[in-house]
Each structure stands twice: as C-alpha cells, then as structure tokens.
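Thread title: Can someone regenerate the structure for this chain?

I was given the following input by a collaborator and told the matching structure tokens would be attached. They weren't. Posting the sequence so someone can regenerate them.
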Amino acid sequence: MRLLILGTGGMAAAHARNFAAIDGVTLVGGVDVVPERLAAFAAEHNLPRQFGTLEEALAWGEFDAVANVTPDRIHYPTTMLAIAAGKHVFCEKPLATDAGKAMEMTEAIEAAGKVGMVNFTYRNSPALQKGRQMVLDGAVGAVRHVEASHLQSWLVGNAWGDWTSESKWLWRLSKKHGSNGALGDIGIHIVDFTSYGSGLDVAHVFGRLKTFDKAPGNKIGEYDLDANDSFTMNVDFSNGAIGTIQATRTAPGQLDQLRLRVYGDKGSIEMIYDTGKSTLRACIGEDVHTATWRDIEFEPVETNYQRFVKAVRDGKTLEPSFRRAANIQKVLDKALVSDASHKDEAIT
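Best answer:
Regenerated them for you:
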C-alpha cells in the first residue's frame, strides 16, 4: 500500500512511524502548506515527494491511501477531495466538526467503495478491547450504570509543553481556528471509549460546557481563547442504563487518563488507559458479595493503523469506521445544543 501523509504537524509523526513499521506499506509523500515543516518531516521519515497542496498530490496520484492528519476543520474538504479521486482514507478524529459533514463524508466513501476509518487511538488499549468483550459476554450482567472520564492537565502543567506560546496547542482553544474545545478534541474519544467499552449507544444527552479565563482578555496573539475547557454529560443509553461522561484539560496529576466503569446487575468492570498504560479490573461472580476487585489479564491487540492496512488489502472497511465517527459526532453536537437549551436532547 502506497500512503500519502496529509498534514505534517502534531500527530503526523505517529502516523508515519506506525504505518512505516507495517510490512508492505510505503510512505510515498507528504503534504503541508508550511514548506519548512514539510521539509523537516520528509527528511525525518524518508518521504521521497513533497507537495504544498493536496490538489498537487492528487494530480500526481501515485498512491493508494491518505492519512489525513490536518486540523479538524480541514478534514472535510480534504477527505472529500481524496474520496473523489478514488483514494482510501484514514482520518484523524474528529471526522468533521459537525455530524452533518461527517455523515456526508461517510456516505461519499461508502458510495465510492473505498475504505474509510478514523483514528480513535484509545481503541488500541487492550484493556478496553478485553473489557468490552467481557461485557458483551455477560460478565457483569445487564448494564445499569456507567461512569467515564477523560482527564488531561496541559492547561495547568507544562509536561506537554507551554500551551501559551505554541500554536499546536493554542488552536485547540480557539473556535475561529476550528476547535470545538475539549468536547470536540477529547470528548469524541471518551464518548467512543464509553459507548464501545459498554457495548451501548447513547440515546439522550444533557450536556454542560465550561470555558475558563486563561489570559488577559482571553486572547493570545491571533487566538481567541473561547473554546470549552471542560464538560460533563448525563446520558441515557440504548438499553435504559444511565451514566455520566466528563472530560477536562484542567486536571492536575493526570497527563492523559481515560477511565470507564461499567456496573451491571451481576458485577462491575473498570477499564483504564493512563498515559500509555492499560489496566483492567473486575468485581464479578462471588466477589460481588465481598466487594473484591481483581486484576484481569489481557493480550496485545492490533492497532488502528494495522487494521486500516488490513482493510485496504481486503477491500472491506473495519472499525472504527467513518459511520461510527459520524454517529459519535451526533452525541457531541447534541451536547452543544443541550448546553444552550438546558434541555435533554435525543440522539437521532
């Protein structure tokens, strides 16, 4: 498979490293509007060709698939161009900035008969995969209650860098730069993590979003710091269970932690991804009577990168698909509506 890397900032290095490590995958070129950044990226990852625009790359055309690692608001127009040119697409999350565009992308790639998958990176957690299977196998019985959180600390600590001076962070805080804040950035991860891990779809959402004061006038240079920093959701699930989903960028002591607890009428299970480390615990069977939690072993799992390559080779889309990402985006969109209306919103 010949792969083009579209966008060479942030996550692009992870895409390049992971795809290059897969047998049979060749990185044939990169695209970026910033020549200096593209040149450095191409040198680091041995990309033979460089393009200033996707249109230039498509005119050349000697590739099979695109890894779309552009900023959120650029996913829609660039992915639609790639689909029209007959390319498979592996897109960073979110698929689009709203569910309408995400569904349009979904329908376009399905109609084209091409593979479209989205990089929900935390699907790579073996604890999540094992925990989900246990829930589906009935280990906790009928799910009644769910708790989930995604906690980061880069707005209050410098372990990830200085957000006040680096554009790779500042754009995530600015609506006019295409950001939907914590809801759009990490919210899509924790909603997918929750829904996937519990085996349930979100049916209704009541959302609350909060943007905190972070600088004089809440502005740094060209960036208006007006995107949300934290959110909470009260949700109903498709089976009648209820739960809470929350996320923030202001959690000291947490670099990048996702935690999901699924409580059923026969037991409970906890799935944790914490800055690269996965943990799985359960309280099931006779342990329910003594409230005893035990660690559960798990095996390594295929990454999204490996699954995308397999899907292209087999000509059949695997999860997480464009359609999955579009459906998760519906939950985020309704959370935004709910925050404004102060009402419960149905996912339709």
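The two ends are 37 Å apart (CA to CA).
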